[in-house]
């Protein structure tokens, strides 16, 4: 236990409609300051992440010691296939309140509220090596639905002048059968709705031949995060994936491309390994079905 741990006072739990972003940011930075995966989160980046992932303050929960936030569960909310689904954007406990069961109490409180909110399911991701968190979620009724692998690769300077853009905008995707182009269903943070929540942050690139869309990709213009990469079934090959990756490099300021949450065993998973991407970290998607 940390030397500066505070004996757990009587904390109040409430939703976050009236909680300033600055308060959430302060607690977030403290809670993740010693996290296994280093997280740099200026307040502007946090605001973007919350918008992208459909943050719902009214369905998010904080534990407060007076005005100070001691812990939080930040939820996104979406309608998916006729159901109301929530997603754990971030869960954390500030260092002074860790190792005292606060995360478990917050989670139980939140789960008890979901039926009244009309929620059908609750999705989250947990690092493969974070067995303590996995046990916590299993105890509370979550089950693993699939495994995700994460990849990155650094490149030389972007090739913007070598590969012309062939994208005309998001309307180009509306006529496509996107599930047929993808080798797995995108995770919450990579879903098309995430892109549409912050369209100015992303570039959509499309490869066409003879008027037909052979492949498409979506990349963050600043950070190089690849949200989706899809290839038409008749064209699917590692070479086609490599061609799209080359184009995406031309439309990000980052010298590194990052693929988060690639479903383990999928065609894209195999392609990235074949193309020399480094597997950086893995995690599980877990789902709680609301009774």
TrEMBL record:
Pfam families to which the protein is assigned, alphabetical: Acetyltransf_1
Keyword Transferase in annotation: yes
Entry keyword annotation includes Acyltransferase: yes
InterPro entries: Acyl_CoA_acyltransferase (IPR016181), GNAT_dom (IPR000182), YpeA/RimI_acetyltransf (IPR050680)
Domain N-acetyltransferase: 11-158
Keywords for the protein's UniProt record, in alphabetical order: Acyltransferase, Transferase
Gene3D superfamilies (UniProt xref): 3.40.630.30
GO molecular function: acyltransferase activity, transferring groups other than amino-acyl groups
Protein's name according to its UniProt entry: N-acetyltransferase domain-containing protein
